[in-house]
Amino acid sequence: MDLNRKIIAIDGPGASGKGTVASRVAAALGFDYLDSGALYRLTALYAQQCHAGWSDETAVAALAGALPAEFDGSRILLDGRDVTDAVRSEAIGMGASEVAQLPKVRGALLQRQRAFLTEKGLVGDGRDMGSVVFPDAALKIFLTASARTRAERRAKQIGLPAEGLAFERILADIETRDEADRRRAVAPLKRQPDALLLDTTRLTIEESVKKVLDWYAEI
Ligand code: C5P
Fold first, then answer.
1. Which CATH architecture has domain 3-217?
2. Hey, where are the domains in the chain?
3. H or E element in which residue 82 lies
4. Which end of the chain has fewer CB atoms surrounding its CB within 10 Å, N or C?
5. In which residues is ATP bound (predicted)?
6. Minimum-distance ligand 1 atom for the alpha carbon of 113
7. Which residues approach ligand 1 with their CB closer than 6 A?
8. Rounded to an integer, what distance in angstroms lies between the CA atom of residue 22 and that of residue 126?
9. Tell me: the pLDDT tens digits for 173-193?
């Protein structure tokens, strides 16, 4: 069987809910799940721990290539230490976006991402799943939501009200990171011509998951 038929590539901007949707789709189909953003976040954290500047391409690429990371269910380990919460911080998200602009870093993480694919099948989420990592994926989806909705979801996740200064800060951070991801020269965030658009602004997680499963059943 052509293994590409068992790949679903889900790309989109940050805080769009694609991680939640992708992991639930993977569970429903019995596929593995790849959170590619976590690898960029781990790289940024590891560089910080090793005192390498996020713009030092050679040093960061070497660290990315030798990332001592493990995925244990929903927990993420770096050098044996649980960094699940540490990698989720907004500061590390910004660092991830910075190291993700470096071609050598992307190159260093490419095979590692492809190695997640086995006979079981894979749902991968990120920015370049459908364009670079799995260009022959059977189903490609560009999952998005308005910046305000994404900021509301992020605020809810960390227990903040969807208004006020802290909320405006979240919204501004989301917009800054979107802009950096869209404008970069390598693997920019962009809907591929063969990707189906899933705008989740007015959809629940369950509705979004169902939509993806319906599309997958149709191919
Ligand atoms: O998806 P998440 O917010 O965890 O990703 C963190 C950052 O990693 C993104 O802002 C993006 O710059 C980068 N990234 C990427 N390519 C991917 C996944 C994430 O460039 N496939």
1. 3-Layer(aba) Sandwich (3.40)
2. 3-217
3. strand 81-82
4. N
5. 12-20
6. 21
7. 14, 36-37, 40-41, 93, 96-97, 100, 126-128, 177, 181
8. 10
9. 999 999 999 999 999 999 999
